[in-house]
Amino acid sequence: MRLHCRLNSLTKFLTVVVYCVVLFLIDDLVVLAGLFVIPFVLYVTRFRVSRFVIMFAVIIFGINAFFIEGDLSYKVEYALRIVLRFLGIVFSGMLFSWEDPNEFAHALMNCGLPYRYGMTMVLTFRLIPLFSTESMTIKKAQMARGIDLEGVPSLLNSVKYTFFPWIYSALERADALTLSMEGRCFGVHRKRTFRKESVFTWQDYVWILFLAGAVVGTGWWSS
Amino acid sequence: MIEMRNYRFRYTDRWILENINLTVDRELIVVTGKSGSGKSTLALSIAGFLRDVGVHTGEILYSGRNIDQVDLFELAQSIGIVQQDPEAQICTLSVEDEIAFGLENLCFSPGEIEQRTDWALSIVGGNHLKTKETNSLSGGEKQKVAIASILAMKPEVIIFDEPTSNLDVETTKEIMRVITKIKGKTNISAIVIEHKWKHIYKYADCLYEMKNGSLTRIETPMNVIYSGYPRGVGEPVLELRNVTFSYDSPILRSVNLVVRENEVVGIMGANGSGKTTLLMCLMNFLDYEGDILVNKKSIKGKKTAEIARDVGMVFQNPNHQIFENTVHKEACFAATNFSVDCDITPLLVDAGLQDYQDRNPFRLSYGEKRRLNIVSVLSYGPSVILLDEPFIGQDYENVQKIMDLLRGKTCVIVLHDPWIAKAFCTRVFELRGGNLHEITL
């Protein structure tokens, strides 16, 4: 499930960066809470919040409230500010991670990132799920030979017995990919074309102007 | 046109290709031969990938020019390779991007790319795949996309290096149909390197056999020699009772099976039908419903490492089960884990690995690694051995060697080749709709 929004991937990324910067420029708790609500609502209406994030937020709150000096209301306010910033960054980041990585990489290449790096990014997104499935298979293959790799205590063994088969498979995969990419002329010219241009529309420019205004405005207001 | 004249090639001391003479001009030729006979080296040589590697004599001419003098990228445009594993050669996230990949590298305009993408997809019969993501495709669909991505560059020659090794029977036939369609609808020459020549040789202009690095034209395909296996009559070793398992949708629906002593049970079925899942249940890797009995005792709740003592498993990729740094240690690895004393030498002799005992197992050939996996399972004498597609990329002789090693053992083998199933299995089942159906071949 992705957020459907007509803005360019790069504009969305810029939005997340600016949002995080603004979170740190603002100290007013009410405004901070207001800012936090935006990604939070966008997130919870689409996805489930993981228990891990909530636990982590509670721990951050606890640590800050406990170690900071001052009276109770100051402690709570301070800890709340930190937690809101943390959650704001997490939720906006997670929302962005649901963007199409392919589109993002293409947008970056369109903006001047050399295509070798951009395609490396695409390749990474292609390979991550493959490597993760493969390491699970290798783990099972070694367990089938009588090595107990179940549970936390055997974590070290798990690395020990799966490392070499995994490296070997990764190298084999790299070989096949090189053949496949060079066989299709990857790297032959300094530039390459793209079947679909990643375009910036007037909405992107308006939004970027707004973002610039937001940073300058908040900076001026908070100082 | 490709012409090879007295071409020889070696990586180190031993010549891998010997005096190859071959002409391919808008034809479909099939090259068959044993594993390790040099077929893939032939493919890489023709595509120019070995120009700067090893030593070669003689020449390969592409349109009358020696390929050593042709620019490598010009060669890549003219000669494409489709590899064995479709998963390994896809490098982008969407079908459209994948087919456009080569064209984008060659700076084609978006309009031209679109047109060629549609054309290539129509030849492979994959227009419906156009807007899909590559990781959502089945093995056969991935291979079609890989073929289309080479086809879109409109090369003069496409080399298919065992393109159906990982595919089931129906999908294999479909890919072979695609290859014959390429021949019928375009001027592209096709060099098909394949063990499963049966599905294609009727359409081939020439059939060649590669033997110890030499290429000979043959008229009739090789004969297959095999021997029948006795039907199991002994005690039940493995019993599945109403085994049910689902991920998002049901994969296994109340599967029942009894495997008796000395029986070799073959399990066939389309890619994705749940064959590997079934084997995973037998090792307790998955949380299934129902019961599985090994030697009449339920394995429910037991750890995999414990079950492995009675149920040996050989995984699909031989590299996944290798750990030690010498063949001898690797062969004893599992037996050591189970504290079983075994004399490994006779097993290594049976597997033809006795001369490699001190060698690093990763340096063995694919077929040798596969036999080493099997030796390492045989070493501790489990009651039943499960094998997940052990014959991928193996020629008839290697299949025979594997089956000789397993003679007299109780086995459950997941496989695709009907002829192997017919030759070696006492009973064959097809996994269809989540259930096992016994079939006669």
Question: Could you list some keywords that capture this structure?
Answer:
heterodimer; A: 223 residues; mainly alpha; 8 helices; B: 441 residues; alpha/beta; six-stranded mixed sheet; globular
What fraction, in percent, of the residue positions of chain B are helical? Answer: 25-40%
- Side by side, the strands of the main sheet of chain B go 6-7-8-3-9-10
| Unreliable sequence segments of chain B | 223-227
Mean pLDDT of chain B: 89
Distance between the termini of chain A: 40 Å
> Using CB atoms under 8 Å apart, which protein chain pair has the greatest interface?
A-B, 50 and 65 residues
Proportion of β residues of chain B?
25-35%
Number of strands of chain A: 0
SS elements, strand count of chain B: 20
Question: So what's the overall shape of chain A?
Answer: flat
User: In percent, how much strand structure appears in the residues of chain A?
Assistant: under 5%
- How far apart are the termini of chain B? 42 Å
Main beta-sheet strand count, sense and barrel state of chain A:
none
Oligomer status = heterodimer
Count the DSSP helices of chain A: 8
Number of domains of chain A: 2
Summarize the main sheet of chain B. Answer: 6 strands, mixed
**Radius of gyration of chain B over all CA atoms, rounded:** 23 Å
Provide a descriptive summary of the structure in words:
Chain A has about 220 residues and is mainly α. Helix content of chain A is about 75%, strand content about 0%. In chain A, α1 (about 10-25) runs antiparallel to α4 (about 70-95) and α6 (about 115-145) packs across α7 (about 155-180). The two termini of chain A are about 40 Å apart. In chain B, about 30% of the residues lie in helices and about 25% in strands. Chain B contains 14 helices and 20 strands. The chains are: A mainly alpha (about 220), B alpha/beta (about 450).
